[in-house]
Design brief:
Helix content is 60%, strand content 8%. With 155 residues, the chain is mainly alpha-helical. Strand 1 (25-30) and strand 2 form a beta hairpin. Helix 5 (102-115) packs parallel to helix 7. The chain has a two-stranded antiparallel ribbon with strand order 1-2.
C-alpha cells in the first residue's frame, strides 16, 4: 500500500538527508483525529517536485474547494517556492474552513513573516501558541513556532 502525505517544510531537509544515507525511516499512519494508529511502515522516498504538487493541489481544489487540508498543503508548498503572498492567502482560506487548526495558524504566521508582515506574523504566532493543545500535537506547534520565530527576515 502506498500512502501520500505532506512533510512540514522545516523538516524536509533533515528527512532528505536521512534518506540519502540509506536510512529506513519508520512511519506510523493515524486516523484523522490522530488517535488510532492504522498502520506502520517506512518512508521510501520524498518527492520534491513542488510545481507538480501545486498542480495536484489546484486540481484537488477544482474538485472540492471545501477541504481545509488541501488549502493548507498548497499554502505550505507556495511558501516553499517563495510565493509568500499566495501562501498567506491559501493558509487563510484553510483557517476559514478549519479555524481551530493551530499548525495551519503557525504556518500562516511563518508565511506572513516571509512576506514581511512582521506584526501579522507575531499575532498569528501568539494565537497559535495560545491555542496549542497539550501533548505531542501542541509540542509540534510550539517547536515550529520557536524555530520560525528565530529565522531572520531579509530587509
Amino acid at each position: 500500500v502506498s500512502v501520500l502525505f505532506t512533510i512540514p517544510q522545516d523538516n524536509l531537509p533533515a528527512v532528505l538527508a536521512r534518506l540519502q544515507t540509506g536510512e529506513r525511516i519508520p512511519v506510523d499512519v493515524f486516523d484523522r483525529e490522530q488517535k488510532v494508529r492504522l498502520d506502520r511502515g517506512r518512508l521510501l522516498e520524498v518527492e520534491g517536485d513542488a510545481r507538480a504538487a501545486l498542480g495536484d493541489y489546484d486540481r484537488a481544489l477544482e474538485l472540492d474547494p471545501t477541504v481545509a487540508s488541501v488549502w493548507a498543503s498548497r499554502g505550505a508548498w507556495r511558501a516553499l517556492l517563495g510565493d509568500a503572498g499566495g501562501a498567506v492567502s491559501d493558509l487563510g482560506r484553510a483557517l476559514e474552513l478549519e479555524p481551530g487548526n493551530t499548525m495551519t495558524l503557525a504556518y500562516r504566521a511563518a508565511a506572513r513573516k516571509q512576506a514581511g508582515d512582521l506584526e501579522g506574523a507575531e499575532r498569528d504566532f501568539a494565537a497559535a501558541l495560545a491555542a496549542a493543545p497539550a501533548g505531542p500535537e501542541g509540542d509540534a506547534v510550539r517547536d515550529f513556532v520557536a524555530r520560525r520565530r528565530a529565522v531572520r527576515t531579509a530587509r
